[in-house]
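User: My collaborator sent over this chain with a note saying "see what the structure looks like." That's all I know about it. Can you take a look?
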Amino acid sequence: VLLGDMVAGSIHVGVRVASEENTIDQLMHVSELLAQAINGLSASVPEIEVYSTYGNHARVVANKKESIHADNMERILPWWLRERVATNSRICVHESPYHEFVKVDVLGEGIVAPHGDLDNIREAGLIIPALFANVGGAPVKYVVMGDKHHQESYERLGVESFIVGSLCGTDNYANDKRLFSKPSQMMMVFDPEEGLECTYNISVKS
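Assistant: Without extra context I'll predict from the sequence alone. Here is the result:
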């Protein structure tokens, strides 16, 4: 599940300047890197399901008060991946019907993954299951989001919510807000009988 902010767009000028690439070049670059990584993984994994939401760094209009949330350049990324891996029968790149949300059912466990810029981890366990109460599939039991540049988990009314660490760790803007965290990603392991068996916070070496 790709949680967004795969590029540093125009919302924070300092971050964009520090990236040394314009947003479109970043988007092309990261799309190809992801395609190569997923294709490489498919040599060892028989079936790969790719889900993607978009972050807030690549919105077309920098001012969020003047922006339409879905007017976001990162929406191109899964479209490109779908075309790029079309000849690999082991990979399926899904298109979410739920706007900025991804809904995945894993062994009967319902997971919803938004980017997280519009969500609060302490309220997500109440609000997101209510939003998806009338959607087919398993009821929401887990919420997974990014955005905040640190790792965190919180349980409320039986719903576990997770903030996943950022792949880049931090940037100038996040550092100024004291939102530092080591670069990491999260792997969730599910068991047919136990549901979510464990989570691994995987450190990423730069």
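A starting point for your reply to your collaborator: Strands lie at 48-50, 91-93, 102-106, 109-113, 140-145, 152-156, 159-163, 184-191, 195-203.
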